[in-house]
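User: Predict the complex.
Assistant: Input components as received:
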Amino acid sequence: MVEQEPESDDGVQLDLISAERMENKTSMEKIRMILDSVHDGDIVVLEKGLTPDEESKLIEVTMTEINPDGFTGIEIESFPRSETKESGLLGRIMGKDEDPAKLTVIGPANQIQSLHKDETLISALLKRK
Amino acid sequence: MGLFADLRDSISAVTAKLFAGESEDPKRIGIYGPPNAGKTTLANRIARDWTGDAVGPESHIPHETRRARRKENVEIERDGHTVSIDIVDTPGVTTKVDYEEFLDHDMEKDEAVRRSREATEGVAEAMHWLREDVDGVIYVLDSTTDPFTQVNTMLIGIIESRDLPVLILANKTDLEDSNVQRIRNAFPQHETIELSALEGENMDEVYDRIAEKFG
C-alpha cells in the first residue's frame, strides 16, 4: 500500500494510516489494505479504527487467508469506544453511530510477540524478522 | 392502580396471544465466546436437560468445535410457560490459528494442519452466523481467565451494534481461580450470570434468564 518499499527486508515496517486516507474507502477496501500490509509483515496503526461490522468482516476474511505455510492470522488491539457518545438504536437512527474505535494496531500474529493494552497505552513487542 | 395494572396485564396477554402466530418460529440463539470457554459443554447441558440429546463432543483441545451446530426446538419450561429456541453452538472466535499449537496435543502434522484449516473455516462461519442468522447471543466466558481481551471487546461490540439481546455467562465457577466479578467489571452494561456448565451449577437461574431474555 505504500509507494516506496524499504530497501532492507530485515526491518519491521510501521504504517500509520490517517483517518483521512480511510474515509472514502469501502469496508472491503479497508480490510484488503490492512491485510495486504499485514501479509507483508507490516504493522498497521489506524488513526481511526473500524466499525463493528468491519471488525467482524476483518476476522472472517483473516480466517479465510490463514495457511500453514506462513500466515497465521492477526493480532489486533484498539482503545475502547468513547462512553460519552450516543449509542443504541436512537443513536443509529440519528446517524451518530459512525464513531468507530479509536486508534487501532494490527499486525501479523507470527511476528508480534505480545500486544498489550491498558486504558491509555497499547504496547507491541515485535519479533525480529 | 391495581385496576390499571390488571387491565394492562390483560391487554399484554391478549396482544401476546394475537401475535403469537407470527412468532411461532423458535429464535436462533448463538452460543459465542473465545475457544475453550465451555460453549459446547453448555450447549450439551441445555440440550440434554431439555431434549435428552447432546449437541457435539467436548474437549480441552482448542477448536474442538469447528462447525456451527444447531439443535432445533429446544423447549425450556419456566413458570408454567414454554420458551422454544434453536441453540447454535459455534466455534470459538479468534483472530489467529497456528497449526503448531495442535502439535502440543499429540497430533501428527497432517492432522494438525487439517484441524487448523477446519478451525479457520469454522470461525469465519461463526462470524457469518453472527451477522446474518442469529436472533440473540449467549456469550460464554471462562471465569478463570482475563475477560479484557480484544476478541471479547470486538465481539460484544459487534453484538451490540446489531442490537442483539445478549446474556453473558461466567462459566467454570467450579474451578478455584474463578473470578466472576472480573467479568461483571469488564461488561457492566450487560447482565452476567455465573455457572458451571460442567457441574450443572446454577442452571436454574441460567434457564430463567434465557426464558426472560429470548422468550
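Residues 48 and 102 of chain A are 5 Å apart (CA to CA).
Let me know if you want any component modeled separately.
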